[in-house]
């Protein structure tokens, strides 16, 4: 068996094409979706992420405003920027790029973003709605992963999904989305005992642990769908995932590559959510008019 690769680049391109049409329809109604991205400091990886987001937005017609702030900015100063854009009706989405400098409590900043503009989907209100199976905004990486299952007709009903990693960005919201789609979910983490025994039971294995090529062939049930969320550098400096791609491709039925798998889908979902927020604003206005 050789795993079929789940092509994130191709799927993201299809989604962007569809989003471009939705943006054009919004512009015909006098609304241009607008995303504000706030970057603090000079983290090189963060700069690359912000640049990629900016390019993706430009391609589909979303207006972006990149705010670059100094490393030494205070928490209160950053909160003031968030408040400013919360109150700006022309802005549909706000994203504060993580990580933040040590003097700033990232949780406090995330909680300060208005839930209706929270394109990252990390606000506790939005996470609460997700866990109640009434999603308003979704964390972009797990949301992108769900698109693979939809595109490739991979049924989740009754399947055993094992998630390696319990972060608020991937592991926890991923578990909620899988539950909402009728999978049976096991979350594993750094304190889990006999991890390989659990991963070998997975019909769908999602690796989001942040350790280069951690998941080996012997950790995977033959025929499993394997989603590799990792972005790491190995000892040779090569970009690799959390899954040993060469080994696991021999036993898995489907596998996301690194790069070109989950990464492009995360950015596509960020764009999709920005457009959705803009559409929601138009619907609200239309509703007020029709009710008047």
Automatic annotation (TrEMBL):
Residues 139-280 form the Tetrahydrofolate dehydrogenase/cyclohydrolase NAD(P)-binding domain. Pathway: One-carbon metabolism; tetrahydrofolate interconversion. GO terms for biological process: L-histidine biosynthetic process; methionine biosynthetic process; purine nucleotide biosynthetic process; tetrahydrofolate interconversion. It catalyses: (6R)-5,10-methylene-5,6,7,8-tetrahydrofolate + NADP(+) = (6R)-5,10-methenyltetrahydrofolate + NADPH; (6R)-5,10-methenyltetrahydrofolate + H2O = (6R)-10-formyltetrahydrofolate + H(+). It comes from the Bacteria. Keywords: Amino-acid biosynthesis, Histidine biosynthesis, Hydrolase, Methionine biosynthesis, Multifunctional enzyme, NADP, One-carbon metabolism, Oxidoreductase, Purine biosynthesis. NADP(+) binds at residues 165-167. Pfam families: THF_DHG_CYH, THF_DHG_CYH_C. Residues 6-120 form the Tetrahydrofolate dehydrogenase/cyclohydrolase catalytic domain. One of its GO terms (cellular component) is cytosol. InterPro entries: Aminoacid_DH-like_N_sf, NAD(P)-bd_dom_sf, THF_DH/CycHdrlase, THF_DH/CycHdrlase_cat_dom, THF_DH/CycHdrlase_CS, THF_DH/CycHdrlase_NAD-bd_dom. One of its GO terms (molecular function) is methylenetetrahydrofolate dehydrogenase (NADP+) activity. The keyword Hydrolase applies. Signal peptide: none annotated. Its EC number is 1.5.1.5, 3.5.4.9. NCBIfam families: PRK10792.1, PRK14186.1. Belongs to the tetrahydrofolate dehydrogenase/cyclohydrolase family. Catalyzes the oxidation of 5,10-methylenetetrahydrofolate to 5,10-methenyltetrahydrofolate and then the hydrolysis of 5,10-methenyltetrahydrofolate to 10-formyltetrahydrofolate. Homodimer. This is Bifunctional protein FolD. It comes from Liquorilactobacillus capillatus DSM 19910. The lineage of its organism: Bacteria, Bacillati, Bacillota, Bacilli, Lactobacillales.
């Amino acid at each position: 068996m050789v795993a079929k690769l789940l092509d994130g680049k191709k799927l993201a391109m299809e989604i962007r094409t569809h989003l471009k049409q939705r943006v054009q329809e919004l512009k015909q109604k006098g609304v241009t979706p607008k995303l504000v991205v706030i970057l603090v400091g000079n983290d090189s990886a963060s700069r690359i992420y912000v640049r990629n987001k900016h390019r993706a937005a430009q391609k589909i017609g979303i207006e972006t405003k990149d705010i670059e702030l100094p490393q030494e900015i205070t928490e209160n100063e950053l909160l003031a920027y968030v408040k400013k854009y919360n109150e700006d009706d022309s802005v549909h989405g706000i994203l504060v790029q993580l990580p933040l400098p040590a003097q700033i409590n990232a949780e406090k900043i995330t909680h300060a973003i208005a839930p209706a503009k929270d394109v990252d989907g990390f606000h506790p209100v939005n996470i609460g709605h997700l866990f109640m199976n009434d999603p308003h905004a979704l964390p972009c990486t797990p949301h992108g992963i769900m698109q693979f299952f939809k595109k490739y007709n991979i049924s989740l009903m009754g399947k055993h999904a094992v998630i390696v990693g319990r972060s608020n960005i991937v592991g926890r919201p991923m578990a909620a989305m899988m539950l909402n789609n009728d999978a049976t979910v096991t979350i594993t983490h750094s304190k889990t005992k006999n991890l390989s025994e659990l991963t070998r039971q997975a019909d769908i294995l999602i690796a989001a642990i942040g350790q280069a090529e951690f998941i080996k062939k012997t950790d995977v049930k033959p025929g499993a769908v394997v989603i590799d969320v990792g972005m790491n550098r190995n000892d040779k400096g090569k970009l690799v995932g959390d899954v040993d791609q060469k080994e696991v491709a021999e036993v898995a039925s489907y596998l996301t590559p690194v790069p070109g798998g989950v990464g492009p889908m995360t950015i596509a979902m960020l764009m999709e959510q920005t457009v959705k927020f803009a559409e929601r604003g138009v619907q609200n206005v239309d509703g007020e008019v029709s009710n008047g």
